[in-house]
Design a protein that fits this description.
Mean pLDDT: 84
Helix content: 40-55%
Number of strands: 5
Distance between the termini: 31 Å
Low-confidence stretches: 1-34, 39-50
Shape: globular
Strand order of the largest sheet: 4-3-5
Radius of gyration: 17 Å
CATH superfamily of the largest domain: Fe,Mn superoxide dismutase (SOD) domain
Number of helices: 11
Bound molecules: fe (ii) ion
CATH topology of the largest domain: Helix Hairpins
């Protein structure tokens, strides 16, 4: 799996970059490519309905070994998280999309209409998309891990400093009661921090926080409990070491 995964990651990365350029040029939101879903290139619901090809979430290769993030996130947690939790969300949302005869062709359309759909689609669709986004936002630990360039400038401009940003973001994650996510989003070009419950995300039409996701942290207990038990703040502190700031910068530019 190790070699195959690395090979698949390279292929996926190259494919993603090319697809991002292509879809951007065509005016199609590259987030569709990012989450790993099969869908037509239609961006309108009516077109999607006539195409008869509703979106189908897929699980891309993780892109690194399960132990790549240690000691910050342990291998067993990553394996269970990826092969059980994420796989389960994808399977269930695809079943629900078929059962409910949903015809939206992109995750953006699905989430923009999520308030009209079932809790099964909401929870598992969010779980499918959020985790795909999460895996891509992580990488092996880097000493002094921090953003650079325009992203750092934007963070400094919005939050005063990188340390103040981290403090606010960590507080959003630690303060989310129960299960959920903390996010950094761009809302009409303004960077904001907030959190969402369960598997909600900032693309949902009725989300507590709205905007284009740039970075998100999973603060469900399944993301950290094996290693950290109830110490969520410690998990968040160590999670900073494995944030893939290049990915975050790509989201800002997209
Ligand atoms: Fe999770």
């Amino acid at each position: 799996m190790a070699t195959t995964n690395r090979r698949n990651f390279l292929r996926t990365s190259i494919g993603f970059s090319a697809a991002t350029v292509a879809t951007t040029a065509l005016g199609v939101n590259p987030l569709n490519t990012l989450v790993g879903c099969s869908s037509p290139t239609s961006s309108g619901k009516e077109s999607a309905e006539s195409s008869g090809t509703p979106l189908e979430f897929t699980q891309e290769p993780l892109g690194y070994e399960y132990n790549a993030l240690e000691p910050n996130i342990d291998a067993r947690t990553m394996e269970i998280h990826y092969t059980k939790h994420h796989t389960g969300y994808i399977s269930k949302v695809n079943d629900a999309i078929k059962a409910d005869k949903i015809t939206y062709s992109t995750p953006e359309e699905l989430f923009a209409n999520i308030s009209k759909l079932s809790d099964t689609v909401r929870n598992n669709g969010g779980g499918a998309w959020n985790h795909s986004f999460f895996w891509k936002s992580l990488r092996a630990p880097v000493d002094g891990n921090a953003p650079a360039g325009a992203l750092m400038d934007a963070i400094n401009g919005s939050f005063g400093s990188f340390d103040q940003f981290k403090e606010q973001f960590a507080a959003a994650g630690a303060g989310r009661f129960g299960s959920g996510w903390a996010w950094l989003v761009s809302d009409q070009g303004t960077l904001k921090i907030g959190s969402t419950p369960n598997q909600d995300n900032p693309l949902m039409d009725d989300a507590e926080l709205k905007g284009k996701p740039l970075l998100g942290i999973d603060v469900w207990e399944h993301a950290y409990y094996l290693h950290y038990q109830n110490r969520r703040p410690e998990y968040i502190t160590n999670w900073w070491n494995v944030v893939n700031w290049d990915f975050v910068a790509e989201q800002l530019d997209a």
